[in-house]
Amino acid sequence: MAKPKEKKKKAEDQSPSKSDVGKNNDDDTRNSQHQEIDEAKSIKKMKKKKKQKHTVTMETIAENPNNISPIVGYFPSGYDPLKNNNSNGVDELSTKLYRNVKRNNRLQLVVSPNGSQVDFVGTNYSGEAASAQLCAYSLGVFDKGTRTLNIVPIAANKILRLEPRVRGSDGPETEDADTGKQELTAVERDEKLRGLTHMYSSKKSIRQAEKLDSLRRQEDTGNQEEFDRNIAGAINKDALEIAVTTDNARNTPPYDLAATTPQLAYPLERIISNGEWDYLLDVFKLMKAGAEMTPGVYPSFVCNRSYKLEHIQDEDEKKRLAGIFSFITHLVKFKDKHSMDGVSSAKHHKIPGILFQKFSSMFAIPDSKRLPEERKNLLINYVLVLTLFADDFRTDLSDIAKDLRMNAVALRPHYEYLGCKLVREKNVLLATLPVPLTFPDPRRKRRR
């Protein structure tokens, strides 16, 4: 009788209780929730994997002077040219572009809706377009097939405001008259720029502008005194021959025919003004810090002669030679900035503002990225005269010819034009400057 009771107990132990059933249900719900979370995470991972990175080529198209660039304009009046689009394919708008005959940089865009007496006119020289602009606009066109983003400059770098105007009114004539009144003379423009500099520029820029003005006034005073001396001695022909000439006579730096030493033949104070030496201390500071000159930053002529600064004991003489090296560097980099083959080497070179304005007025012309041949030769002559000062008037032509992107044969006529004599010592061609200064006679082409 005892054995059946034990079987019943075993059967009761094997059947789960209600509490056990509840626990199992909770575990199932938790497992299902974890499975749903895992499935959501896997779906997110699949979506991330589906996102692919696309490679896009960006191409910048330069402005072509023979073709007109895209023109961008907007209608401030709220007129929508695409609202009444003609389904028959007939153009609803007539767009015309006019260019000034005398001033080809002035453009006028006229948009004329068909069947209307109102024209929408926008210009790049009056109204909103005449205000100050501190950015450049470009138009981007993305080609999905080739995955190329073409960036094109827009015409006149202006977004034209298309104002409504009744056809036949005299608006354009009155507008041209107003724009003529807005044009300032050179003196008024300088005064206005000086006022804006004092109002909005930094203290450093204001000091540089004031120093530049004082240097200009000193130069004007010196030119007037020199002119008075020349007029006073006009009767004496000998005095006229030995007078200190200006750089306009022979496209050279200022020279003195009566000089008895090479140092006075081309006065250094007439090439580098007194106020400009304070902006030519970069080579001197670099030498003081014990750093080496890298050929990419400084011309090879300067790098090959930097050792001379270490052997000079006099501090003023050391600053003078370092300033000449710095001035040569800025001249060479200014030439590279305005040339096709050297613009990359001068891309990150910073020329002090006072020197950049001087170089721009002497060697460059407005609205041109290239130097005229005559002014480029003048810049080369300034560099060559300073190389004579740096080498005690016995200079090697090879390294400075490399810096000017010329060969030594092409550089020889420039030295001869300055009155130098070329001598060969130990298979090295040297340029010397004998005194008194004499210039070669101009060569005339023979007629055949």
Automatic annotation (TrEMBL):
<dbReference type="GO" id="GO:0006362">
    <property type="term" value="P:transcription elongation by RNA polymerase I"/>
</dbReference>
<dbReference type="InterPro" id="IPR009668">
    <property type="entry name" value="RNA_pol-assoc_fac_A49-like"/>
</dbReference>
<dbReference type="GO" id="GO:0005736">
    <property type="term" value="C:RNA polymerase I complex"/>
</dbReference>
<keyword id="KW-0240">DNA-directed RNA polymerase</keyword>
<protein>
    <recommendedName>
        <fullName>DNA-directed RNA polymerase I subunit rpa49</fullName>
    </recommendedName>
</protein>
<dbReference type="GO" id="GO:0003677">
    <property type="term" value="F:DNA binding"/>
</dbReference>
<feature type="region of interest" description="Disordered">
    <location>
        <begin position="1"/>
        <end position="53"/>
    </location>
</feature>
<keyword id="KW-0804">Transcription</keyword>
<comment type="similarity">
    <text>Belongs to the eukaryotic RPA49/POLR1E RNA polymerase subunit family.</text>
</comment>
<feature type="compositionally biased region" description="Basic and acidic residues">
    <location>
        <begin position="9"/>
        <end position="42"/>
    </location>
</feature>
<feature type="compositionally biased region" description="Basic residues">
    <location>
        <begin position="43"/>
        <end position="53"/>
    </location>
</feature>
<dbReference type="GO" id="GO:0001188">
    <property type="term" value="P:RNA polymerase I preinitiation complex assembly"/>
</dbReference>
<keyword id="KW-0539">Nucleus</keyword>
<dbReference type="Pfam" id="PF06870">
    <property type="entry name" value="RNA_pol_I_A49"/>
</dbReference>
